[in-house]
Design brief:
The structure holds two protein chains of two kinds. Chain A is an all-alpha fold. Helices cover 73% and strands 3% of the residues of chain A. The chains are: A mainly alpha, B mainly alpha.
């Protein structure tokens, strides 16, 4: 029983990181209907640059974390300017945008290899002071709690921002109908660039949290989360932010529960992807999707 | 002649892989011709490769039987998968085929008969270069013929506007399943050849990133004509060797140059490399953005 409770708690922690990663993914999809396959590379660069800031520049993690997040946001602007903006008026922008984002991912991967080397790195010990709590036989560290709090806070801020602020409303208008937004005087290309900034900043933040949680970062760590991120946004419904959060938690829980029930880690991803497959056939718009089936 | 032999001795494996990758890219082109984005063709290649490998290693089947067996197995799975999945469109179809691919990969990792994560070993290296390029030539000829046939026009009409095609009496489901199954069979055949080229196959050989590579070959080469995917596969498979020949050192720099070339092709050749050789109907300009419902 304790083991199960422990697994559930662990699933919650890792699920919140998946959620944060997927929220950035789904934000761009919701606005542009395009998958940004460079998102995982931004996630990697965010995490690695935070390690560099702590280790080489000697910053505290509290300064390095926001800086790495901003840097990741800057990469998002770069992705938009180089890979998406020039293709926007093209008829097959869905396919070609996919490929140009893959090209950006390759370039970012090369940058990660060149700047930080191929070996896996970790935050220096003592970057975050870790307390360990035992609650009813379940071990929880202050690091885990901090990760969930930061992830939740960022997702909460994003939701409020999209609901309440003027820019947030403009983003939703562009997502709904680009042409109408333009007629209403919304600066569409500016809003799209800003969406990329937020999306990538969240991806970078997820990279830092992931690195702190697993205590290991490598240039290929984006590959592990890329597919999971895609699965999460489908599970939650493409373009739906609460869906991505919920999907992230569900995916994290399903991972640990599969391990707990089957006793091995071999089938961890199999269950998740089988569920994903079934959801696509039965309810393609996802758990909280907008019910949009036809691709324009 | 001697120089040619020397060239082959040095670059033989690159030439073989160009052929295999071109055949795989062509297999995806059957589905792309109808505007369907499938990320499952790497998994079909895996099914073909494993089936052929098991036939050869465990049942001592001759090469041609193994190759056809792998291709047929991939075709049957493609047919069974295609019927429910092809109702989905666009990114959703891509995701469903992606999930299928992951399930196949994980199955290959966990089954005993496939050799688990270490892969299936001891497959004899009996695929020859001429076999690969014969298969490629046949597939390309088939593709070129298909494009001009009734089925080809049906597929193009589905790509341009599915609803309109349905109204004109095109049997959409039938055409889609046929294209998907043919693609799966070609991919299975290519995978089976690959298995007999490489001594061993592992689940990693047919993962998500291979599926993405196939799409990249198609878009870079051009999806609208039969030699587009072949051009794309040839260029991108040979690119690391070309860069090495030009003196670009291995590692991050070569990776970055790879990415930049890909980006430049996408930005400046909207119809892919094939548009350098033919005048295709321009698709670069969008007349009006389709409204979303």
């Amino acid at each position: 029983m304790n083991l199960l409770a422990q697994q559930l708690v662990n699933g919650l922690f890792i699920g919140s990181v998946y959620g944060l990663f997927a929220v950035g993914y789904t934000l761009v999809f919701g606005v542009l209907d395009i998958l940004n396959l460079a998102h995982a590379a931004v996630f990697t660069l965010g995490g690695l640059s935070a390690v560099w800031l702590v280790q080489a520049a000697g910053m505290s993690i509290w300064l390095a974390f926001p800086l790495a997040t901003l840097l990741a946001g800057g990469l998002g602007l770069l992705i938009n300017a180089a890979a998406f903006a020039p293709l926007r008026r093209r008829a097959d922008s869905q396919f070609s945008g996919l490929i140009s984002s893959i090209a950006m991912a390759i370039i970012f991967d090369a940058a990660a290899l060149g700047l930080f080397g191929a070996r896996s790195v970790r935050f220096p010990p003592g970057t975050v002071k870790v307390h360990v709590w035992q609650i009813a036989g379940v071990t929880i560290t202050s690091l885990q709690v901090g990760i969930v709090l930061v992830a939740t806070l960022l997702m909460l801020i994003l939701t409020l921002f999209l609901q309440r602020s003027r820019t947030g409303k403009a983003i939703r208008t562009v997502a709904e109908n680009e042409r109408a937004a333009m007629l209403l005087g919304v600066n569409v290309s500016g809003i799209i660039a800003f969406t990329f900034f937020i999306s990538s900043a969240l991806g970078g933040a997820a990279g830092v949290l992931y690195g702190l949680y697993f205590d290991s970062l490598a240039p290929d760590m984006g590959r592990a989360i890329e597919l999971k991120g895609l699965a999460v946004i489908i599970l939650g419904g493409m373009g739906s932010i609460p869906g991505a959060i919920l999907g992230g938690l569900a995916f994290g829980l399903s991972e640990v529960l599969t391990v707990a029930v089957s006793g091995t880690s071999n089938l961890r991803d199999a269950v998740a992807f089988t569920v994903l497959f079934a959801i696509l056939l039965l309810r393609p718009s996802g758990l909280l999707g907008r019910g949009k089936l036809r691709e324009a | 002649m001697e120089q040619l032999a020397q060239f082959y001795a040095v670059y033989g494996s690159v030439i073989n892989f160009i052929g295999i990758n071109a055949l795989l890219a062509l297999s995806l082109n059957f589905t792309l011709a109808a505007g369907m984005l499938s990320l499952g063709n790497a998994a079909f290649a895996g099914i073909g490769g494993y089936t052929a490998g098991i036939l050869t290693v465990h049942l001592k089947a001759p090469l041609i039987v193994s190759l056809c067996g792998g291709s047929l197995m991939a075709g049957v799975v493609g047919l069974l998968l295609g019927m429910p999945v092809l109702r989905l469109k666009g990114v959703f179809l891509a995701m469903a085929t992606l999930a299928f691919g992951e399930v196949v990969r994980i199955a290959a990792v966990n089954l005993d008969i496939t050799g688990g994560a270490e892969g299936l070993t001891g497959i004899p290296n009996i695929t020859r270069t001429w076999m690969i390029f014969l298969a490629l030539a046949l597939a390309a000829y088939f593709m070129a013929t298909l494009r001009r046939s009734r089925i080809g026009w049906g597929l193009i009409s589905i790509r341009e506007d599915e609803t309109a095609a349905a109204c004109l009496g095109v049997d959409i489901t039938y055409y889609k399943v046929v294209a998907f199954t043919i693609g799966a069979m070609v991919a299975g055949f290519a995978g089976a050849m690959y298995a007999h080229l490489n001594y061993l196959i592992t689940p990693r050989d047919f993962g998500f990133f291979i599926a993405v590579d196939l799409l990249v070959y198609n878009i870079v080469g051009g999806t609208r004509i039969w030699y587009g995917p072949i051009l794309g596969a040839a260029l991108l498979t040979a690119l690391p060797e070309i860069l090495r020949g030009v003196g670009v050192a291995a590692g991050p720099v070569r990776l970055a140059v790879n990415g930049v070339i890909l980006l430049l092709v996408i930005l400046f050749l909207p119809n892919g490399l094939a548009s350098l050789f033919t005048r295709l109907r321009p698709v670069a300009v969008k007349t009006g953005r389709a409204e979303r419902t």
